Automatic annotation (TrEMBL):
Keywords linked to the UniProt accession: Oxidoreductase
Protein known as: Unannotated protein
GO MF term set: oxidoreductase activity
PANTHER family registered for this protein in UniProt: DEHYDROGENASES, SHORT CHAIN, ESTRADIOL 17-BETA-DEHYDROGENASE 8-RELATED
Gene3D superfamilies, sorted: NAD(P)-binding Rossmann-like Domain (3.40.50.720)
Keyword Cytoplasm (UniProt): no
Amino acid sequence: MEHLASPIFRGVLMSEVLIRKIAFVTGGGSGIGEASAKALADAGASVAIADVDMVGADRVVAEILENGGIAKSYKLDVSDDLAIGAVIAAIEKDFGGLHIAVNNAGIGGDLAPTGEQTPAGWRKVISVNLDGVFYCMRHEIGAMTRSGGGSIVNMASILGEVGFANSSAYVAAKHGVVGLTKAAAIEYGTAGIRVNSVGPGFISTPLLKILPEEALAGIAAIHPMNRLGTSAEVAALVLFLASPDSSFITGGYYPVDGGYLAK
Ligand code: NAP
């Protein structure tokens, strides 16, 4: 994935917009998290990249450093609340605070109709995709309060707004992320912490690469733009919601879906 270009935006070089800001991206070693981490770094933020996959996280850190940015990797399973607390404390120590969090780590889970879904399969998806976002937020809010405010961007999905067959745990978790985002936005509106969620349509990332070509073509066709999205297209929205340019935006859910939800 190429880094985003650094155009001039409202008279300010995009490469300066997030200078001196400290960002945390979960699942930053691949796909949408990788693109988001690189976009934030390109805009000047120091980026803490957390992932269960340290090969991916270390690769992304190396690419950001090569590009002149600032980044460090942290091993983290977002379904482990204690571990998140330790990583957030380490980030505050390493970088001096926290201003931006992209709660992006997520898994697809087993495909099965609800009546055939196992409690273990359900729990696994909920523990990463919903519990993980809550656990991250509860530690991020403390750190952002100590840093004088911040912006949290939660990675939901179009499936945070509508249903999809054979994915009940994923759909329930992503609807939960949208609701959690709204509740926290109301609570912290006067505390200088904004909270928004993003709803990607189907995006070409390793998460989807397990599907055969003909299935991917079928999935592309259910988007009015008749293609999959790219991680960079999602990262552009994440960057906007993380930056001061979205200073009056909180509690919102923003699709980036090639028109999927318009149908
Ligand atoms: P991806 O390419 O698979 O990247 C996700 C990253 O998160 C991987 O590095 C993965 O590691 C890591 N991860 C998985 N479980 C984790 C955990 N418990 N703790 C920390 N890191 C963990 O997926 P993606 O497509 O970029 O998806 C990112 C987010 O976007 C997810 O929340 C997903 O639900 C959402 N989303 C994706 C799409 C899409 O079409 N791709 C659409 C809508 C929403 P491993 O590779 O080792 O599992």
